[in-house]
Amino acid sequence: MQGVLTGFAVIAVVIGVGYAIGRGGHLGDHGREVLTRLAFHVASPALLFTTLARTDLSLIFSSRLLVTALSTAAAAGIFVAVGVVRGWGLGRTTIGALCSSYVNSGNLGIPIAVYVLGDASLVAPVLLFQLLVLTPVALTILDLAGKGESDKGPVWQRLLTPLRNPIAAGSLAGVAVSAAGIRVPSPVMDPLTLIGNMSVPAVLLAFGISLCGSAMPGRGADRHPVLLSVALKSVVQPVVAWALAAGVFGLHGAPLLDVVVTSALPAAQNLFTYASRYRVGEGLARDSILLSTVLSVPVLVAVAALLG
Nearest-CA neighbor of 304 among 275, 265, 248? Predict the structure, then answer.
């Protein structure tokens, strides 16, 4: 229980500071945009590179990864199906699908893994899956959705879209370094680590600033997409993960608790950075992240009590 509360307390404090900064206008009219650009183009790529360059990639090949991938696909697939039927648009539907399935495995998942599961490395499979598969695919879709048909260029150029995206490029570079067994020297890695450490605070501060003057979450034009994404993220994804882990892969005890806890984590704050960068579904991302974060507290407590 302490891990759940500690993780949420850290996030709440930093978001609160961002809100206070926004209310006071200390960063001017473009403070949120500057923080978002800093996180997207500089800090997050550095963080992803340094994280993946030091990670044992063998961690991704496990039954836990399969449970994560299938439960993620189920939650995202349901949102996509509804989005297509309701005509929510490609970019907006992509953001909603991410909010329905992309868990906060970094700044919240790691402390919860330490305090609840007893091992920070247990979030590595879901972290790597999201960085190596979900992020490049989603950002490629958002890149292409944000351009006119005449601006998309030839097929070969469109296939290289992930390599032109700083976050995807940072992830892929880190994987390449890890796979090759290269040890990056300290004079190179240390500055990248220092820059990467700005990513999470910048994202949380920008998120807090965005709350200034915003309407109550779950209302307005984004009401139905928000409520659907929150229901999928907070209830459907962890239930699907539990059913697959216990019923299909025969997991029980600690391994079962691990996969259900990681699936029950709320939507990640960096999804708001993506929405802001591509100027699509910003309200949807902000409200979904906020509501899923609030709801995940009782959900994670219940999971820890039932399976712990």
Answer: 265
